[in-house]
Amino acid sequence: MNRLRYFITLFALSSIVLLAFNEGEGDSSTISYPARWPKPVYDFTANPLHPLKIALGRKLFYDPILSKDSTVTCANCHLSYTAFTHVDHALSHGINDSIGSRNSMALVNLAWSKSFMWDGAIERLDAQALAPITHPAEMGESLENVLRKLNRSEAYSKLFEQAYDQTPVSTKQLLEALAQFQLTLVSAGSKYDLAQRGEYDFTEQEAKGYRVFKIHCNSCHTEPLFTNDDFENNGLKLDPDLNDLGRYGVTQRPGDSLKFKVPSLRNVEFSRPYMHDGRFNTLREVISHYESGINPSSTVAERLKSGIPLSEHQKADLLAFMLTLSDRAFLFNPDFAYPRN
Amino acid sequence: MKFSLLLITLTFALHSSSQIPESKYVKLTFTPRINGESILIESESSEALKKEKATISNFKWYISNVTLLHDGKVVFSEANSIHLLDVSKIGKPEISLSTPSSIAFDQVSFFLGLDSTINVSGNMEGDLDPTLGMYWTWQSGYIHFKLEGSTTEGKDFSYHLGGYRSPFSTCEKVTLNCSESWNGNISVSIDKFLDSIDLNEESHIMSPGKRSKELIKLAALMFEVSE
Q1: Pick from B10, B7, B60: which is nearest to B190 by CA?
Q2: A137 at interface of B, judged by CB pairs closer than 8 A
Q3: Does A75 touch chain B (CB under 8 A)?
Q4: Model ipTM?
Q5: Which of A100, A332, B92, B123 has the smallest number of Cβ neighbours within 10 A?
Q6: pTM for the whole thing?
């Protein structure tokens, strides 16, 4: 009887451990993520993941062949060690030292996003790469030229043919491969995530900070993705030089003026500077902004208009909590870094 | 005996049914015209062009969801109905529909443009390939109608009409009446479009929005059956 109970317990425990991670029906053509997360919105049936395609996408991500003068790669602005964004730069720069108009966004958990860019201008991940590749202040290249270069390269011709069983290299293949690599960038291993799984106990300060977060921040930076994937005006004063009206530029709806995509706070410790124009260098400045720096223009949410009341203690606690969103296993994952083969 | 009779009957039935042609091709041919005259891109040799109001350097548009109707009812609906028609290609831009041979229709209907599903999740291959120059890189979506050129006075114009986001969707339904003996020719009268715009005020439209939506409705009026 003891033996039976032993085996039943063992079985129960392993089931719990297995159920803690949802493999999307145990299927390697899609990504795996914690069981309690919402389902990804990306249509994996249209572009099922495959190791050869992921490896190809990763090679392209780190290759300056995508740029006009072979100096700019995706990784230039989306460096893996710094949350797949460009630290220390308020606005990103591209070929010929040209400066863009917005801060580079952190690439993480993209399979859950319905739209991309600070104004959501791009509504499919597969098409996103076209924007930086062809933008004159980023990679400055043409799609036709990129395909020409890839087809002329013996190495790439071979890799594409192995992955897609077709020649020549096409737009669709290029975009899908880049998307596949980016889709694998899933961050779900921070202290916060471990705490959710009962594998880590928050310190007293972190726990207090979590409570503050849930009251004041969760409505836009919604768990577990730490974004509601929507557009909000968080009270930043319009910069008259950049004159960036955000989402309004895409929809032309007055109610969207000065609204920007809510970025995920995962790995926020490493993704400075902050906001669509990189105006805040530190998280302390960000928290101060929410407490007393809100510019209550008409499209700011009511609950934010008079700022978030926080004591100095609460600000420190909140900061401590935000640091628990750092996922070093993600940031230093060798599968995401520069490919060495 | 009964079985062999059945076998013979079946063979006859199958054989005779293969004698009747099951399908035919209905060809829709689009002829771009200015003041009634057919134009070819950059054909400097044509006398007629010197009298025209404009020289066209680029003219492409998407047609999708092609259907044929009879008495107001759909009698044929094209599968995978997405076509990029490009006047700069040699010959006339055309769409070939594989229809049942017995088909009779008195109306043809199509979208000038692409619906939002295709815009957001089309396969980016063939006529949807972004290398064809009809996909905006900085914003999701296809350019549904692209007309570029210059007037005889040397004024350049460039109309990139597209966008699928409500309320500025530029997918415009076109329904044309035709006779049952129609040869499939459709005129695309460019002067009709240019005449309804003040080229001095508005020579370039390069992004989705209110004006794009208004202009695509005018563009839809370019298409007419020519018997």
Answers
A1: B60
A2: no
A3: no
A4: 0.80
A5: A332
A6: 0.86
